[in-house]
């Protein structure tokens, strides 16, 4: 595994001597860990079925769970998917950014069935993180990229998280520092003219509904290829090694505390470890630090992580979605 450390504040980072090697690795079907504004992605050429198969293998991800393809622009996205007026409106409002759109796949799109899990729809995103956009543009290929962690485990927001989890499977890791949003993209499906929220994420439901002028509907079961479980059940995901409980009212000396806001709960000062997601109670800050918080508390060795209540509006909806999945019974 080779490392490319990118300083995005230098104007010519794209001309670094590592760049051609990273592009060549992707074009040859290799796996490259690439930061975006959401989390670090495990990227491969989405048009190369074998390369996408390596993603599933490295993560231990079930192959029925389709991948998001990252493209440099809306224009490129329209090569692969059919955008109706509402989908276009969302793309124009939020791209580049942490919004994924699931739309009908164009027959002419070269994105592999391995990436879409054989569906007739395709998940597309133009990320704000410039490294993924640059690599997609330079290689001329859409890049399939789920989070660069073992399936079901905590998502990575630092290059070192990726190296710890998946280093051996990778050709390159691109390190551009911490991810600014820190939580995965919001996924909206617009397949039959009706916008549906498939996963809460880095753009809030409220911001999307403002642009649409209508409410987002819930996902219909046939649009949840990743969730064959019974409705209302949260499949275990984003799980630390410790067990996680929600809505903590107090905390014991052997537990770790994932806190939020300025008010300490009883026992907080004696907890084995504490990580405050946002002492000011700011939901964007909490989203950005959520996965580091879980990783840090897990490393404390506590058997139980107790998470304080977090309100469910704005980015709180995505944070609570991740926490509920991390707290779900393990397989
Ligand atoms: P991630 O696990 O962050 O890579 O996000 C991938 C998720 O996108 C999957 O688990 C699905 O929920 C969703 N997804 C990707 N492609 C599709 C699709 N064609 N139809 C519906 N959902 C999709
Ligand atoms: Mg993931």
Task: Please provide a brief summary of the model.
The protein is of the alpha/beta class and 331 residues long.
What are the salient characteristics of this protein?
single chain; 331 residues; alpha/beta; DHBP synthase; 11-stranded mixed β-sheet; 4-stranded parallel β-sheet; 10 helices; 15 strands; 18% strand; binds adenosine monophosphate; binds magnesium ion
Tell me what the structure shows.
By secondary structure, this protein is of the alpha/beta class. The chain folds into two domains: 2-212, DHBP synthase (Alpha-Beta Complex); 243-327, no CATH class. The protein is 29% helix and 18% strand. An eleven-stranded mixed beta sheet has the order 1-8-2-3-7-4-6-5-9-10-11, with helices on both faces. Strands 12-15-13-14 form a four-stranded parallel beta sheet. The longest helix is centred in the last third of the chain and has 17 residues, at 283-299. The protein is globular, with a radius of gyration of 19 Å. The two termini are 31 Å apart. The model has no long low-confidence stretch (mean pLDDT 95). It binds adenosine monophosphate and magnesium ion (MG). Adenosine monophosphate is lined by residues 65-68, 102, 116, 119, 121-123, 146-147, 184, 187, 189, 198-199, 223, 225-226.
Radius of gyration: 19 Å
Classify the beta-strand content into a percent band.
Answer: 15-25%
Strand order of the largest sheet: 1-8-2-3-7-4-6-5-9-10-11
Provide mean pLDDT, rounded.
95
Q: What molecules are bound to this protein? A: adenosine monophosphate, magnesium ion
Count of domains: 2
Largest β sheet strand count, sense and barrel closure: 11 strands, mixed
Number of helices: 10
Number of strands: 15
Report the end-to-end length measured between terminal Cα atoms. Answer: 31 Å
Shape: globular
Q: What is the H-and-E element order?
A: EHEEHEHHEHEHEHEEEHEEEEHEH
From the 3D coordinates, which CATH architecture of the largest domain would you assign?
Alpha-Beta Complex
Do you know the CATH topology of the largest domain? DHBP synthase
The poorly predicted ranges are none
């Amino acid at each position: 595994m080779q490392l490319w450390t990118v300083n995005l504040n230098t104007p010519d980072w794209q001309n670094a001597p590592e760049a051609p090697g990273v592009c060549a690795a992707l074009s040859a079907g290799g796996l490259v860990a690439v930061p975006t504004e959401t989390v670090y992605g495990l990227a491969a050429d989405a048009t190369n079925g074998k390369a996408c198969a390596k993603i599933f293998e490295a993560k231990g991800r079930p192959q029925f769970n389709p991948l998001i393809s990252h493209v440099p622009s809306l224009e490129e996205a329209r090569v692969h998917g059919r955008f109706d007026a509402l989908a276009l409106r969302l793309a124009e409002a939020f791209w580049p950014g942490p919004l994924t759109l699931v739309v009908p796949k164009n027959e002419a799109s070269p994105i592999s069935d391995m990436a879409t899990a054989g569906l007739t729809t395709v998940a597309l995103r133009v990320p704000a993180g410039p490294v993924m956009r640059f690599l997609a543009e330079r290689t001329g290929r859409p890049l399939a990229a789920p989070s660069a962690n073992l399936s079901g485990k905590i998502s990575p927001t630092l290059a070192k998280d990726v190296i710890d989890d998946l280093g051996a499977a990778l050709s390159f890791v691109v390190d551009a520092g911490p991810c600014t949003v820190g939580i995965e993209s919001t996924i909206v499906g617009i397949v039959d003219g009706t916008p549906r929220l498939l996963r809460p994420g880095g753009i809030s439901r409220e911001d999307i509904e403002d642009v649409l002028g209508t409410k987002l509907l819930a996902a219909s079961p046939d649009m949840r290829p990743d969730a064959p479980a019974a409705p209302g059940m949260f499949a275990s995901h984003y799980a630390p090694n410790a067990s996680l409980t929600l809505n903590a009212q107090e905390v014991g000396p052997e537990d770790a505390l994932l806190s939020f806001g300025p008010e300490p709960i009883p026992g907080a000062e004696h907890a084995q470890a504490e990580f405050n997601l946002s002492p000011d109670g700011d939901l964007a800050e909490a989203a950005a630090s959520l996965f580091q918080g879980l990783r840090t508390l897990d490393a404390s060795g506590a058997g139980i992580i107790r998470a304080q209540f977090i309100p469910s509006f704005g980015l709180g909806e995505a944070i609570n979605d991740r926490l509920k999945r991390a707290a779900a019974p393990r397989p």
